[in-house]
Every structure is written in C-alpha cells, then in structure tokens.
Amino acid sequence: MKAQHSADSGHPYFFFDFISPFSYLLLEQHEKWPDMPFELVPVQLLKLLDRWGQPHATTIPSKRVFTYRHALFRAEQLGIPFKMPPAHPFDPSKALRLAALADGDITIVRDIFRYIWREGRDCSSAEGFRALCERVGMPEAEARIDDEDVKAKLRANDDRAVAAGVWGVPTFVVNEQIFWGEDTLPMVLWVARSPNWLDAAEVKRISTLPMAPTDADFS
Asked: What domains can be seen in the chain, in order of their start residue?
C-alpha cells in the first residue's frame, strides 16, 4: 500500500538520466513509491556534475568497475531484469530529448529505460535511436530530436535541478527536500509517512552543522 502525502506538501519530482542504471532500478520499483503525483524530469547528469564541480564515477577506474558490479548486484537482489548496454558511459542526449518530447510520460520513460538496461540496447547510434523511437510509438521523434525547443527544454530541466540543489541521479524532491540514490526509497517512504521527522531536533542539528575551518590540518 502506498503512503499518503500531506495536503500541504510541495510538488514532488523525480530527476533521472538514462545513463544511470540506478535511475532504471528505482523506476522499476515504482509500485513502492509514495502515492504522490511525481513529475518525471529528464536531466543531463554530466551537466549537473560539471555545474557542481564533481567528477563522474567512470573517471576513476576502480569506481567504474564497482559501480557496474553494484548495479548488477542490486538488480539481482531486487529481482529486476538487468543487462548492461554495449558501452558505458554512452551519450544519452537523444534518449533524454525523447523523454522531454514525451513530457516525462512514465510509460515512455520506462520503455526507454528497459530498452537500454533490460535489453542492453544502444540508444545513442542512429540505428539504435531509430529503433527506440519505433519501440515507444514515437517514430516522428527521430526528426524532431534536434529541434531547438526540445534541446532548450532539456537545458531548462538541468537549470531546475540545480536550482533545487540536485547534484546527481536518481533524485526525489519532496517538500523541497532532496533524496538521492536508488537506496533512498525507504527514507522517502519514511518521510512521506512521518513528515515531522524532518523537524526532529537531531535532524535539524545535523542539517545545520558548521564546516571545519578551511585551514584545518587534516593530515
């Protein structure tokens, strides 16, 4: 049974990028999500990382291997079909624009994710993207994907994410609070059922901890 949200809650969002296997795994658990009208928002993870000055996980060889193993482990643990695409990282821009063109429709977004992460298909090549457009019932998207208004919509999504403080994907934003990562779902459910938890003394204390002086000696 899905958790109910309070009447005065802010508009909830789910920020995702098709480059992220964890975004796929979290969307596959949609039936567990809180009963809220989440808006699915495609964003460019690499653009977000650049804005916050963060390196992508795949730039560190050992982290890249761990990330792929972890995604496979979580998929097996959750019983979710999983197959890596032919290469990773790949260029997700066409798939993201397709999702933007579809206004984040959950059925289309899910089908795109499954094309990439369940079937292990390439969405970035001309042939792969053409097949993807056919798969989701939007063959006309192939000709529209480079339209400036579609690109602008995706850039606006990136701006909206950064303005909300989003630094990675997958991310839920509920009541203007950020919940990041595939394993954040239990926390989202907890806060949906017990919104006053965020007002608890210890939660408030750790949310406003000061940073150590910048000249501190950490050696």
From this structure: 13-207 (3.40.30.10)
